[in-house]
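testing teh design pipeline on a random one, pls ignore if ur not involved
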């Protein structure tokens, strides 16, 4: 099937009986008309019947990466089975945590089309954070959801044939597609990705540090080989939609079985991106920058704490039905996830700081002369975390020892004195 457009999509939806023949349809191409939307692969349309006021969102997966084809004309093929996975995972997630995923109305595999609940009343979390808009309970809800997802799809409850059957059901060739982005072309491992000159010395130091390189390679091995639970795999603030009373997770086409710490780690990294971006954004007051940085840290803390509390509750409630829950320690499992998550967090952070298409909107708003400074700071956070992960015993300790050292007094010293020296690094190196 050819790619849908404003004209053809109307006939398509009527033919599929999503709307009646007398429907008066208004179509919005979200990539063309809505600024606050990200994504490189899919076509996305919002369609409303002006007669009934009913509305849906239509997502079409193309057999190539749309953004890259537009940029260089190449094919950059995409496997259509991503769509099957997205449907299955979104449906399953909705059974674990009510209203966490959009409702699905149609899945047309041959056309690569999903018709789903209209979420146009919600906003992408990344764009809201970039605009300085906060939502108090999102971190807590994400922690609860991630604990439910891990607990119910891991070997804590399932073993043997049952577990293998679930893994087979959610198998997705595309789930490992992000490996190159995270662990091959990452600035931590490659000198090829572009950075501003201010960050190059830090990158060179990281590339020459064998301990860091070994840790990143170890994380990459876990990513490829540790199929421990069902994962979203691409969980960041652009794949979370928020409103005053709603949180929705979207874009699960990379989902599959993978390492238990990857989702909470990647979302942590996404929040750190927003945190560091405020260091370079001087169009708002210092108080506003500090307030947003505080929110980012609170989000991370709330997420980990609610994850642990939910795990403890699930562990207690199901202890008698699982031998592994009787012999294993909930705290030990959570600690293991925490240690790996911190490392995945900084890996994810660094994938989005290079001076190319990888930049998020958090960083695109920063003037070029400030971007190098932010890249340098991000690399130093990654460097410190990968070297010192074993010394962190709680998420609040991580926040204090990493992010809070770039807090109020530090921020003032940077902008008042023009100083770009990272004082807390002196105690480490």
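output:
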């Amino acid at each position: 099937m050819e790619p849908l457009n404003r004209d053809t999509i109307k006939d398509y939806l009527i033919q599929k009986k999503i709307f009646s023949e007398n429907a008066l349809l208004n179509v919005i191409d979200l990539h063309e008309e809505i600024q606050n939307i990200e994504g490189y692969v899919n076509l996305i349309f919002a369609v409303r019947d002006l007669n009934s006021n009913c509305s849906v969102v239509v997502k079409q997966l193309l057999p190539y990466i749309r953004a890259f084809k537009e940029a260089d004309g190449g094919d950059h093929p995409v496997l259509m089975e991503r769509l099957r996975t997205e449907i299955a995972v979104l449906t399953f997630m909705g059974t674990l945590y009510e209203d966490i995923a959009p409702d699905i109305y149609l899945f047309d595999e041959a056309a690569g089309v999903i018709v789903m609940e209209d979420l146009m009343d919600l906003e992408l979390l990344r764009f809201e954070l970039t605009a300085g808009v906060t939502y108090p309970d999102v971190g807590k809800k994400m922690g609860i959801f991630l604990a439910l997802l891990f607990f119910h799809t891991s070997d804590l409850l399932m073993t043997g044939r049952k577990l293998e059957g679930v893994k087979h059901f959610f198998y997705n060739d595309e789930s490992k597609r992000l490996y190159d982005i995270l662990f091959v072309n990452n600035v931590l491992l490659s000198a090829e990705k572009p950075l501003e000159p201010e960050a190059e010395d830090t990158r060179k130091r990281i590339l020459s540090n064998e301990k860091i390189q070994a840790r990143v390679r170890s994380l990459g091995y876990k990513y490829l080989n540790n199929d421990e639970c069902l994962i979203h795999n691409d969980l960041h603030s652009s794949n979370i939609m928020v409103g005053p009373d709603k949180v929705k997770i979207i874009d699960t086409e990379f989902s599959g079985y993978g390492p238990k710490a990857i989702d909470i780690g990647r979302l942590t990294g996404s929040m750190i991106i927003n945190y560091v971006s405020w260091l370079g954004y001087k169009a708002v007051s210092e108080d506003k920058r500090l307030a947003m940085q505080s929110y980012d840290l609170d989000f991370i803390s709330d997420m980990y704490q609610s994850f642990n509390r939910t795990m403890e509750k699930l562990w207690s409630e199901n202890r008698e039905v699982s031998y592994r829950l009787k012999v294993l320690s909930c705290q030990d499992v959570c600690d293991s996830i925490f240690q790996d998550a911190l490392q995945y967090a900084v890996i994810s952070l660094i994938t989005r700081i290079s001076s190319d298409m990888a930049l998020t909107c958090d960083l695109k708003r920063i003037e070029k002369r400030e971007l190098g400074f932010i890249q340098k700071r991000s690399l130093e956070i990654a460097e410190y975390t990968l070297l010192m992960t074993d010394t962190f015993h709680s998420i609040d300790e991580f926040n204090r020892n990493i992010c809070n050292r770039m807090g109020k007094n530090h921020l003032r010293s940077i902008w008042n004195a023009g100083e770009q020296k990272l004082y807390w690094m002196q105690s480490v190196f």
